[in-house]
Amino acid sequence: MRSFIFRHLLKTTESVRIRKLLKKGGWLSESPTNGTVYTDSQTTINVTFSTTGLPSGEYSANITITSNDLDENQVVIPVRLNVIPSQNGDLNHDSEITPADAVIALRIAVDDGHASEADVDGNGCVNVLDALMIMQAAAGAISLRGGGDVCATDGIGLPRFQ
Questions:
Q1: Quick one: which H or E segment has residue 4?
Q2: In degrees rounded to 5, what are phi and psi of residue 146?
């Protein structure tokens, strides 16, 4: 969540309305969406970004602050969001593959859950093999790539999933 402060320095009471113009999806929300800002005062507007369900890519929107005072110009705040894909095997999203990720994969497997970045062998389900492969990647024995591809780096000839 990000916040910005709207300050009112005029000598009249002003009702403020906030409006967003989205180009793609409902990934942006703000609170409050309307209200009154009195002379020589300010209010904080919280802006929340949600990447849930968003494919990788760039997103943009404008947050527009308007007033009931016709003498006041509207304020347009451009907002950009860049969604980057998560790394296969990085289940805690700390930008590296560690044994902690293998533990998370085991929990997903036991609970019959699914997370696409945990299915490192690309067979459509998360199981103990995925956790083992993540542990091997954490140890530097293999490297994981997208789409179930595995590259053996320790010379023991692990199978390649393609």
A1: strand 2-8
A2: -65, 160
For residue 42, the one-letter residue type is Q
Q: How far apart, in whole angstroms, are the C-alpha atoms of residue 4 and residue 22?
A: 19
Specify the pLDDT at position 158: 44
Q: Which of 146, 158, 51, 152 is nearest to 89 (CA)?
A: 146
* Mean pLDDT in consecutive groups of 10 residues from the start of the chain, 162 residues: 53 59 70 76 81 83 79 82 84 91 94 85 88 93 67 45 42
**Which fold would CATH assign to domain 2-83?**
Immunoglobulin-like (2.60.40)
**Ramachandran category for residue 102: left, alpha or beta (phi over 0 → left; psi -120 to 50 → alpha):** alpha
Is the model's pTM score more than 0.70?
Answer: no
Residues of the chain with CATH 2.60.40.10: 2-83
